[in-house]
Amino acid sequence: MVKLLQLESELSILRPLMRQREVGSVLEIGYYEGGTTLFFDHVIGMPMGFIVSVDSGTATPCTPVLTKAALHIVIGNSHDTATLEKVRAVMAEARETSFDMLFIDAGHEGDDAYLDYKMFAPLVSNGGLVAFHDINYPDVRRCYSRVLAETQALHVEIMAERSTPDIPFHGIGVIYL
Fold first, then answer.
1. Model pTM score
2. Containing domain of residue 24, as a range?
3. Backbone φ/ψ region at 10: left (φ over 0), alpha (ψ -120 to 50), beta
4. How confident is the model at residue 9, as a pLDDT?
5. 83-107 mean pLDDT
């Protein structure tokens, strides 16, 4: 069974942002159990969207059944250039030149989120979205703020209605490229 770990209150705000931008392809950093991947499949407005999910391989292998998108899972360290090359190879095989959205939800310590941004944001199309999950987590907030300072990009922050004891950190920071 695929579990959705993000809060519905966050995703209910992210959904129309994705639809407004007509997101048809997503690069997800941090697959974990595939719940967000399934969400992306439901939001993608194209008959055959394209989702690439990168994960270190420590997650429970649980592949959701997608109805609108082709899913490619890339196992590897998101900070390793070999993983970037694997993603590029999947893109080339699928004849995709860029992604409409990058969703960063892997490492939450130190500069993890910033390094994911620097590694994969160049694969996002002009006018695309970059979303950082868990921006209320101190290190992710610092990375997100650093990207905002560097890019001066238009952005929006999606905050959960309330934190829960089992999932204390929430929030999604969305940057418009």
1. 0.89
2. 8-176
3. alpha
4. 73
5. 95
